[in-house]
Structure formats: C-alpha cells, structure tokens
Amino acid sequence: MLTDKAVRAAAAKEKAYKLTDSRGLYLYVSEKGHKSWRYKYRFEKKERLLTLGTYPEVSLAEAREKRDEAKKILREGRDPRLVVRRGRPCLCIGIDIRRVDRVRHGLRSYRAAMDELANAEKQGGRGWANDRVENSYLLF
C-alpha cells in the first residue's frame, strides 16, 4: 500500500509509470511529473479505467474513499464512469443526464426517451426542430 510520503516523493522519469496502492487504485505519474489517481476495474467483462482526480487536489485518503464509492456502485451493477456524470446537463439538448442513464441501463427504450424530448421541445424548449431532436447524438 502507498503512503503519503511515497506519493509526495514520486517524480517524473523518462517514461510514465504507476505506483499501485490496493484494490485497483494507483497513482499515474506522467513523463512531465503530472500525478493523477486512477481506478482500474472490470465491468461487463471489460477492463475500464476511472480517473479520480489529480494529486495534490485529491489526497491519498480521498482517492481511497472515491475508489470505495466506485466499488459500491459496481456492486449495484452499474458502471461508475456513467454515474460520475449523473446530474450534469446533456450538452446537445439540455436534458437531465439521469434520463439518459435510464435509457443506457435499459430501463426505458431509446425511442420513448426521444419522444419525450420531442414533446418537451414542442412545449417551449430551446426551439430545436423535431427531426433534429430525433437524429441528434447524446454527447457526454
């Protein structure tokens, strides 16, 4: 397991390297000396990577807490990368991202979500044309 002293002492080298902590958490140190906390995990039989923040903005203890939160989300059967984005507005249409999460997790059909968006636009949204709402991409 890492110590705060080891994290502070990590310096830039010719190649980027990792200092592992435990349970998938590690500190990534770039060639230029930039340090970021990363959590490596598996979701739906694929290896995924979640960046938890940069050091010293996020301390070792905070990074461990964030890793534990991500593990809890994994135990619930959800991808932590998507949950982190929850609550941010969707860039293309301006909807609440929670609606998109429900679509991604199969709780609602994509078509039903697009119909709901088209109806919202008719009732005084940003003035997008219905065909543009139906054919637009959901940017994250």
- What general outline do the C-alpha atoms trace? elongated
Catalogue the unreliable spans: 89-95, 127-140
Q: Could you say which structural class the secondary elements and strand pairing correspond to?
A: alpha+beta
For the report, how would you describe the main beta sheet? 4 strands, antiparallel
Q: What are the secondary-structure elements, in order, as H or E?
A: HEEEEHHHHH
Please, what is the average pLDDT?
77
Helix count from the secondary structure assignment = 6
The number of E-state strands comes to 4
Radius of gyration: 20 Å
For the biggest β-sheet, the strand order reads 1-2-3-4
Instruction: Estimate the strand proportion.
Output: 15-25%
Describe this structure in words.
Helix content is 39%, strand content 19%. The protein has helices at residues 4-9, 60-75, 80-84, 97-104, 110-122, 130-135, and strands at residues 17-20, 25-29, 35-43, 46-54. The chain has a 4-stranded antiparallel sheet with strand order 1-2-3-4, with helices on one face. Strand 2 (25-29) and strand 3 form a beta hairpin. The chain starts with a helix and ends in a 5-residue tail after the last helix.
